[in-house]
Automatic annotation (TrEMBL), chains A, B:
<comment type="pathway">
    <text>Amino-acid biosynthesis; L-arginine biosynthesis; L-ornithine and N-acetyl-L-glutamate from L-glutamate and N(2)-acetyl-L-ornithine (cyclic): step 1/1.</text>
</comment>
<dbReference type="GO" id="GO:0006526">
    <property type="term" value="P:L-arginine biosynthetic process"/>
</dbReference>
<feature type="binding site">
    <location>
        <position position="175"/>
    </location>
    <ligand>
        <name>substrate</name>
    </ligand>
</feature>
<comment type="subunit">
    <text>Heterotetramer of two alpha and two beta chains.</text>
</comment>
<dbReference type="GO" id="GO:0006592">
    <property type="term" value="P:ornithine biosynthetic process"/>
</dbReference>
<feature type="binding site">
    <location>
        <position position="148"/>
    </location>
    <ligand>
        <name>substrate</name>
    </ligand>
</feature>
<feature type="binding site">
    <location>
        <position position="388"/>
    </location>
    <ligand>
        <name>substrate</name>
    </ligand>
</feature>
<keyword id="KW-0028">Amino-acid biosynthesis</keyword>
<comment type="pathway">
    <text>Amino-acid biosynthesis; L-arginine biosynthesis; N(2)-acetyl-L-ornithine from L-glutamate: step 1/4.</text>
</comment>
<keyword id="KW-0808">Transferase</keyword>
<keyword id="KW-0511">Multifunctional enzyme</keyword>
<comment type="similarity">
    <text>Belongs to the ArgJ family.</text>
</comment>
<feature type="site" description="Involved in the stabilization of negative charge on the oxyanion by the formation of the oxyanion hole">
    <location>
        <position position="113"/>
    </location>
</feature>
<feature type="binding site">
    <location>
        <position position="186"/>
    </location>
    <ligand>
        <name>substrate</name>
    </ligand>
</feature>
<feature type="binding site">
    <location>
        <position position="393"/>
    </location>
    <ligand>
        <name>substrate</name>
    </ligand>
</feature>
<keyword id="KW-0068">Autocatalytic cleavage</keyword>
<feature type="binding site">
    <location>
        <position position="264"/>
    </location>
    <ligand>
        <name>substrate</name>
    </ligand>
</feature>
Amino acid sequence: MFEIISLKNGLENVDGFFFDGVNSGFKKEGNDLGFIRSDEPFNISAVFTTNKFAAAPIKHFKKYPPNFKSNFILLNSKNANAMTGEQGVADIDELFSSLATKIKLVNPIMSSTGVIGYRLNKEKIIAGFDKFNFACRNSNAVATAIMTTDSFKKELAFKVELEDGKSFNIAAICKGAGMINPALATMLCYILTDAKIPKDDADELLKEAVEQSFNTVSVDGDTSTNDTVMLLSSQKAAYEKTAFKTALDMITKQFALMLVRDGEGSSKVVCFEVSGAKTQAQAKKAAKALSNSPLVKTAIFGEDPNWGRIASTIGASGVECFEESLVIKYDDVLVYDKFNPELDKEREEKAHKIMQKDSFKISCDLGMGSAKFSAYGCDLSYEYVKINADYRS
Amino acid sequence: MFEIISLKNGLENVDGFFFDGVNSGFKKEGNDLGFIRSDEPFNISAVFTTNKFAAAPIKHFKKYPPNFKSNFILLNSKNANAMTGEQGVADIDELFSSLATKIKLVNPIMSSTGVIGYRLNKEKIIAGFDKFNFACRNSNAVATAIMTTDSFKKELAFKVELEDGKSFNIAAICKGAGMINPALATMLCYILTDAKIPKDDADELLKEAVEQSFNTVSVDGDTSTNDTVMLLSSQKAAYEKTAFKTALDMITKQFALMLVRDGEGSSKVVCFEVSGAKTQAQAKKAAKALSNSPLVKTAIFGEDPNWGRIASTIGASGVECFEESLVIKYDDVLVYDKFNPELDKEREEKAHKIMQKDSFKISCDLGMGSAKFSAYGCDLSYEYVKINADYRS
């Protein structure tokens, strides 16, 4: 048995790491450059975007040998350093050459988020290095440095108390907002722990956690070039696999929901639960189709219980299904089954009420088998169009 | 050799058919019920939606034996008669029982478009029958009867003059607007001809024409339950396969572009041309991904030459590609290749100017092979959100 206790603040709760964020002139106000580092190199497990045009920082990371340890992650927003070719990777090495005159670096890593297609402004970034306080432990400073169109900062921290009286801490920061997608939600996420977690466990548990959290959410179905989730461990505290898995899943699931909640222009979080599918893959396909359909998303924005769009999207998704076995509910209100094909005024009014809530569930039982998948999505609003039509200006 | 001459008006140009449209009280104003009929039964080739929840009229059609002839198509808007089960099909039979008291019917067909999930109001429709003039040849009346959120009526007509002095005519009506999709653009389209086209040719040429026209366009990536394209031939005039194919392709391609032009809230038509792909399937996958990406569509709405979203969408689409071999152009303006990774002010300004046009081309050469596909799409505007958030009210 173990106990998980929620902690205040963020990364400060994990000993052995230092972090800071500064303004280096890319954002008009607020931090845009940050770091996470430790004196002793930390273990790293990472999951990256499936986008074929992975950004330069990801290519740079992949040049290191398997199971390498690092002592420094450099983070920036406003420029993704994507589609910048070999020069984009060389730019990172140049930055680290400069940074190495200030602090000892072991296999340093960079992560970037922002606009695609521009080289980094190295001069500005190097000037920013002068503002870094390498002894700083300010989680807020680094969490805000990676924000782009995020409307709120995303930090979580837990203490996990094990049966034997020992414990470990786990804390994380995350950014999201746009390009939230089917393959890995567009985002950066850094999870720090002092737990003595073996590398194999870290790789396995991180992969599982991402699949059950970030990979279930969608804001717009677009997969970014920069998605990155990293788990860093200082190996200084206790460890127990089940307890660690539980805490890690809690963090990634909470962040995943925060990403949808903070999806560009999003005003509602909707869980699309598809059950009764023949296979898990089909359940996922149908659930993701629902969370990505513009017609479903606009109906949610309009709070219109137009379940026909739900049915049509499932029918178009390519999964095995029959009109006769389909059942659709909004929370606990039945809106369609073969015995109640038409939505009467009373149920329509109830479903409309449910849609006025901040978050609710649309569940579809295909009646074909026993596989199930829940995807999380949001509405498509005027604000989404506004944010994305004006993004670079 | 043959010559194709554009004709004024619509279906009136094809002898042997009658058509009318009336208001039966579903729309506040304008026609909502119509028919296309002939005295002698006509040949029919049809292509339907790939949506698994095909609407009742499509199920009703499929009950007839292969190669059946019909003499009557009943058309209505405002109600899709989809997700209405066996009753939805039975309703169609009931309508035809009533209609048969007014005019002789041979294997009558129905097509519907509108909201999903409600039974047809048979009383109103039957009352509407009284307004039909079965001797009428008013193409405008029937073309407007199938319109839903369409902002303009879609009619085309051509005379095809063959070498031997003989000729045939071909004319068509079409409706589109929302749920325009990857598998078969959401739409109804009726193509009438007096050509003596063999049934096998008609089936083959219609399938090819749809694949190269409607299946290349997308407004929102949603596949409707009611998509229907029909080719009706009275067999009274001349026929020559190449000439017919040319005219048929012209009609379907022009309609496909009209659907995008009239896409809900659309202000621009964009051709997404993907070339240099390893296979045709990959070219199509990448081109369709571009035409369906919310981030690409909002950038087009904002007239922002943010080619990074184009690259990111291709990278996420799952096709084989490398950053080093990719070339992106907006019309003839190069915005990205490995030698020009960064968009300078001059080219950015040129690309921005191109995006201010009503229609333009975004071409992506993957540099991996020789396969090519062009998909047509539109921007994602406030108006799209408005139309679809308010659709049923």
